[in-house]
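Onboarding guide, step 5: your first structure request.
Type a short instruction followed by the sequence, for example:

Predict the 3D structure of this protein.
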Amino acid sequence: MNLWTIFITGLITGGLTCMAVQGGLLASTLAQREEEKLKNGLKNGGNALPIISFLIAKLVAYTALGFLLGSLGSVFQLSITLRVIMLIAAGIFMLGTAFNILEIHPIFRYFVIQPPKFLTRLVRKQSKSQDVFAPAILGSLTIFIPCGTTQAMMALAIASGSALSGSLILFTFILGTSPVFFILGFFAAKLGDMFQQKFMRIAAFAIILLAIFNINNAIALSGSSLTLDNVGKNIWCTFAVCESSASGITSEISNNPTITIQSLGYSPNVVNVKAGAQIKLKLVNTTGSSCVQAFTIPSLGIQKVVPPGTSDEIDFTAPSAPGQIQFMCSMGMYRGVINVL
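The system replies with structure tokens like these:
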């Protein structure tokens, strides 16, 4: 991939696919800023400043990461455990921010990111320093919660084997994602100016929904079945007749299954293998350009990034006891099941 293709990839898919988590963090800090302005009786202004500081810090952080990955020239990938921790941490931060806005309890004021005292002294108005500091911190921390498309670019930076090439790859990609973040963030801030108090409550509930979404994905990524959709299904099945998992298995057993990665998920999303067998799972990515390309089997500790237009294989030994193995994207959003029979 040349740099122009990488930029277009970031512009078309990168920004949208990363909005669920990274956009939620940006929304949190924008909501914090609006809340402080309301409490301090400050006039509106500088809507673009926190968004720009978020994007610049993110761009710098990823460029430095690309330099490091290109220098290493070897596989560097966040572990599943660390990704789960970061997703949960992001969700907790969003919840704390929303609860602070809704004034549920004074303890949630600690979720507001404050600049260090020495930085405050360097700037005349504390509100201005907050506009820059809090979004910049969150922007730089987004390197710990990359979406699937970003992970593919990280793998490309590693494969380049060059510090300069690695930094250019991630710089160009993140630059391509920036317009989407800026436009959505700017309009969110404008809505804050128009509706003031009403917007704050709407923003708080929106952030809560994003937080629940990310924590639920983190639970799925940990390999647990206690996700909201599974719990909801179990509750529904206590009041309605549901088809058992055994009777729902219609496809044949194959120890060499093929899963096609598409833009909206995996096909098939249910495959059957024989217990104790050596499995050769083929992954073919036709149109999956979001986090769906980062194929993950949490219980086996398997992660494989398969860029669009490519294929790869995963070899593993199926458990000796019958059961189910969950597979999903790196963010826990797109999921499927391997039935061990």
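Each response can be followed by summary notes, for example: The CA atoms of residues 69 and 90 lie 24 Å apart.
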